[in-house]
Amino acid sequence: MSLAEDRNRLAHDVMSPLSAIVGYAELLGRRDDRALQLEASAAIMTAAKELRVAVDVLLYHDQQEEAARPRVDLPPARVARPTRTRILIVEDEPLVRTLLRTTLSADLFEVWEASDGVAAVAAATTTEPSLVLLDWQLPSLSGPEVLASLRTTYPQLPVIVVTGMHDPAERLRAERLGANVFLTKPFSPLELLAAVEMLVA
Questions:
Q1: What gap in Å lies between CA 102 and CA 24, rounded to an integer?
Q2: How far is the C-alpha of 149 from the C-alpha of 177, rounded, in Å?
Q3: Backbone torsion region of residue 189, taken as left when φ is above 0, otherwise alpha when ψ lies between -120 and 50, otherwise beta
Q4: Domain contains 20
């Protein structure tokens, strides 16, 4: 693995749990919801543990293999209502995927999920989403590869890139491939909602 790839992997491992912590904290400040409080408490603790591991790697250059984490796609909303906007979330980190789903109110959005690039391309074909939230670092097919595929098949489909990579060159790459918005982790759920509403209004 090259130095650049190693740095990108580390940024991903740090920014994903940090994004979950910041995002849930912001949602808790805006919503008085007991179910959200319970979910957020568990998610923040899990994210904190993952962040500690990533920080240990950063501080001590520990090269031990990361324990394999299950990649489980969460089911879409059970009741399909045509008035809701259909959004496809493409994110390999379960915590961030859950945060994104929680941010998108079930009353307004019908959410579908994919945890890798191949599943994302397939899901876009079957679900015909109105908008895609796309992680930039994915297994099987990378974010840039997924975006290029989407632009070929659905040139007008709005795509928001959500990534832990802060490299200006990657932002430029995303823009050239046709991304509508480029958000870096940790992202603000309210900023994300504003971008979604702007693109699907």
A1: 9
A2: 10
A3: alpha
A4: yes
Per-residue pLDDT of the chain (201 residues; tens, 9 = 90+): 576 777 777 778 888 888 889 899 889 888 878 888 888 888 888 888 888 787 777 776 544 444 444 444 444 544 444 568 999 999 999 999 999 999 998 889 999 999 999 999 999 999 999 999 999 999 999 999 999 999 999 999 999 999 988 889 999 999 999 999 999 988 889 999 999 999 997
- Domain count for the chain: 2
d(CA 153, CA 166): 28
Domain extent, residue 13, equals 3-60
User: Is residue 76 situated within a structural domain?
Assistant: no
State pTM to two decimals.
0.70
